[in-house]
Amino acid sequence: MGRFAEVAVDPSAGRFNESMEDRRPPAEVLRAFGATADPVRLAGGKGGTWRAGDVVLKPAEGDDAVRWRSEILATLPESPCFRIARPIRAATGDWLADGWEAACAVAGQPDQRRVDDVVRTGSAFHEAVAHLPRPGFLDTRSDPWAYGERLAWDRLRHRSGHPEASGPTRAGGDAEPLLGSLLAVRRPVHLPDQIVHGDLLGNVLFADGLPPAVIDWSAYWRPPAWASAVAVVDAMVWHGAGFDAALRWSHLPAWGQLLVRATIFRLATWAVAGWTSEPMDAYEPVVRKVIGYVGPTV
After folding, report:
1. Strand runs labelled E in 199-298
2. Helix 255-273 vs helix 176-185: angle between axes, to the nearest 10 degrees?
3. What is the Cα–Cα distance from 273 to 111, expressed in whole angstroms?
4. Any residues with CB less than 8 A from the CB of 281 and at least 6 apart, and which?
5. b/e per residue, 100-135, with b = 16+ CB within 10 A?
6. Contact, 101 vs 87, CB < 8 A?
7. N or C: which end of the chain has fewer CB within 10 A?
């Protein structure tokens, strides 16, 4: 299992949303990023994002990740297919100020009903960053999302003969039967990895007359079509999309197995974080459809 087996999940990560919601950007942070307007909390995300005029601020989730992402987005060429939120340097020249990061506000709103447009936008973004090497900070992540992604890709060990985590916190509870069913139909996938955005559906903004904007880059080292599968699974679980949303992208390589991994990723993340068990009702029909699509175990 290599280096991934040594990374334990932080049990406190399931309370991350609550701690972020309590934080407001202090005056010294606003000054550091040149924000002069009063900050207003933005909806969505993890509850900790604020807008002050044309500046969007949020608590940093890992200094190395913020600096890596900011250096790339600051110089990524403009594209006719997508916009990005350019990062803002603090007065010190760093991309961070007292644990906060900032970016230029971009026009638009998410529209999770437009899953096909989200997938197309994500594909264009992934083409633009396909040349980037794998960042080292991915090896040290210990949050529920990292757990879910590693479990989905067989880099951890799950209960009862399926790959399971060596850390102190494991996905289980109400999610256990669904995860077990998905793990039973998972098969090897041989596709090239690259850096991708693993949380596209709510982080592509649409505005009339402008290309879609990609924000809040959650970096993973996986096949680009897996990121597309995550967006499709999110649309089916949370936003009422039918399974036809998945079928429309069935031409993508290893699509069925990527749907399996996308569903494991989301379900395991939710379970290990210790959030409410209510979403199991939303996941169950999607899990059945995905398993039916890939066929029985052999």
Report:
1. 204-206, 213-214, 219-222
2. 160
3. 26
4. none
5. bbbbebbebebbbebbbebbbbbbbbbebbeeeeee
6. yes
7. C
Residue 86, classed as helix, strand or coil, is coil
Q: How far apart are the C-alpha atoms of 268 and 120, rounded to whole Å?
A: 26
Contact 164, 157 (CB under 8 A): yes
Which parts of the chain register pLDDT below 50?
1-18, 158-169, 298
Q: Tens digits of per-residue pLDDT, 164-206?
A: 433 333 555 678 899 999 999 999 999 999 999 999 999 999 9
Distance from C-alpha of 88 to C-alpha of 96, rounded to nearest angstrom: 9
Query: 77 φ, ψ to 5°?
Result: -60, 150
Cα→Cα distances 148→152, 162, 171, 199, 266, Å: 6, 14, 8, 13, 7
Residue 146's SS3 state is helix
Q: Report the alpha-carbon distance of residue 155 to residue 165 in Å, rounded.
A: 9
CA–CA separation, 226 and 191 (whole Å)? 10
Q: Give me the pLDDT at residue 47, please.
A: 74
CA–CA gap between residue 263 and residue 286 (Å, rounded): 8
Distance CA 106, CA 150 (A): 32
Task: State whether residue 218 is helix, strand or coil.
Answer: coil
Domain 115-294 is found in CATH 3.90.1200.10: yes
What is the per-residue DSSP string for 90-144?
Answer: -TTSSS-BTTEEEEE----EE-TT-HHHHHHHHHHHHHHTTTPPPPGGGGG--SH
Give the pLDDT confidence score for residue 103 in this predicted structure: 98
> How would you label 31-68 residue by residue, b for 16+ Cβ within 10 Å and e otherwise?
ebbebeeebeeeeebebbbbbbeebbbbbbbeeebbbb
